[in-house]
Amino acid sequence: MCGIWALFGSDECLSVQCLSAMKIAHRGPDAFRFENVNGFTNCCFGFHRLAVVDQLYGMQPIRVKKFPYLWLCYNGEIYNFKQLQKQFGFEYQTLVDGEVILHLYNRGGIEQTASMLDGVFAFILLDTTNRKVFLARDTYGVRPLFKVLTDDGFLGVCSEAKGLINLKHSTSLCPKVEPFLPGHYEVLDLKPSGKVASVELVKFHSYKDEPLHTAFDTVENLPSGGLDSSLVAAVLLKLMKEININYPLQTFAIGMENSPDLLAARKVAAHIGSEHHEVIFNSEEGIQAIEDVIFSLETYDITTVRASIGMYLVSKYIRKKTDSVVIFSGEGSDELTQGYIYFHKNGIEKYLLRQSFEDSNLLPKEILWRPKEAFSDGIASVKKSWFSILQDYIDQQVDDLLLEKAAEKYPFNPPKTKESYYYRQIFEKHYPGRSSWLPHYWMPRWVKATDPSARTLKHYKSATQE
């Protein structure tokens, strides 16, 4: 990932405002740049780079000789940039996949640009000739994007909300930070003063519709069946062998001693022959990470915090102990293939996904047909779940009286458990008054549940015994 940040029409000193951009420095540890826009002294771009492709010419904002009037700050991955190059005869000047955005825009404007991209992305595109600013985000909102837009036309854009909350502006002590809607692009006029005026916000694609770019897709894409993390690893290794990549595939798993996920990951690694790494953590290490996780995620949602602690710790390990930059994972599979345990009893839980690989021998059968285990549950032992460990600790940190008065202190999304109160306190410490960033707590709607953990449901016991 990288971090993108931009301001248009700032009334305050840019050297002071740019301090806010450093709040997202963790997104790009390899390099950073601040660049003023020629002719607009109160407009600038900020970029934190995680260098993956084109070490020499991949810095942003991207500007190429062919389109000197275009400025692009982009975070994401465009899967079909080579297909589009072949289809339209684009002449790329860098190896950055995002450069295709400049060529598509020059060819057909912003609507065609957003619709033709196959990938995950968030970008800020400036056209100084036509005095336009464009914002866009992928259909499912995989890549984050937030914005501030005041009544008098001051615009701030950032990959994370924390890069905008401390911005200063003459007409607002606390500009409202909002997420940019997935599957949309916005057109804004750029005034001579550097301020902007929103012209239109357009939904360029609905997940129910076939994307425009499919007309140019080929069979060269990665098979869509590899959604679950084990299948992704197995398919990736198969492809590596087919194109004679000789270095070993590195795989990583995290959990407490003898947790279900660690045991299953060992079997997968042995079967596919990867160079496997286990990250083992204890209760204290997990609990100590809570505040960092809430600060990073910008949320107080219970299940999101629980599950993200393990991901945070394994990501931290990979960053410190290895030179790996791009990591494949199976996130997103549950939403697409009925992967939640609530679907287990009627037999559809990941059935199509499992059946698709039944005869492939990519994975051991016991792994391919292993009942769903939520990540926040799978990283702990069967005897004591991760959510139980958290609740036991938090029970000693939050007084009963505080919980009784929670609705008075936090009228929006009032905490109903000590755990939710504890997370909310930490969130408000870093993001006071911004509880609306979470519209509601996630809770399964298919069954009657009082806790988001699957292990609290009657389905869990039957699922683990089958």
Description:
The chain has 466 residues and is an alpha+beta fold. It has 17 helices and 14 strands.
Which shape, going by the Cα principal axes? globular
Strand segment tally? 14
- Side by side, the strands of the main sheet go 2-3-1-9-8-10
**Biggest sheet: strands, sense, closure?**
6 strands, antiparallel
Structural class: alpha+beta
Unreliable sequence segments: 217-227
Taking all Cα atoms into account, the compactness measure Rg is 24 Å
- Provide a count of the helices: 17
**Which range does the strand content fall in?**
15-25%
Could you estimate the helical fraction of the residues in percent?
A: 25-40%
Distance between the termini: 40 Å
- Determine the mean pLDDT: 88
Any key phrases for this structure?
17 helices; alpha+beta; 14 strands; single chain; 466 residues; globular; six-stranded antiparallel sheet
In short:
The protein has 466 residues and is an alpha+beta fold. It contains 17 helices and 14 strands.
Sequence-ordered SSE layout with sheet pairings:
Layout: E1 3-8, H1 14-21, E2 31-37, E3 40-49, E4 62-64, E5 67-78, H2 81-88, H3 100-116, E6 119-127, E7 132-137, E8 146-149, E9 155-158, E10 178-179, E11 184-190, E12 196-203, H4 229-242, E13 250-255, H5 260-272, E14 275-280, H6 283-288, H7 290-297, H8 302-321, H9 333-336, H10 351-356, H11 365-368, H12 375-378, H13 386-395, H14 400-404, H15 406-409, H16 418-430, H17 458-465
Parallel strand pairs: 13-14
Antiparallel strand pairs: 1-3, 1-9, 2-3, 4-5, 5-6, 6-7, 7-11, 8-9, 8-10, 11-12
Helix pairs in contact: 7-8, 7-16
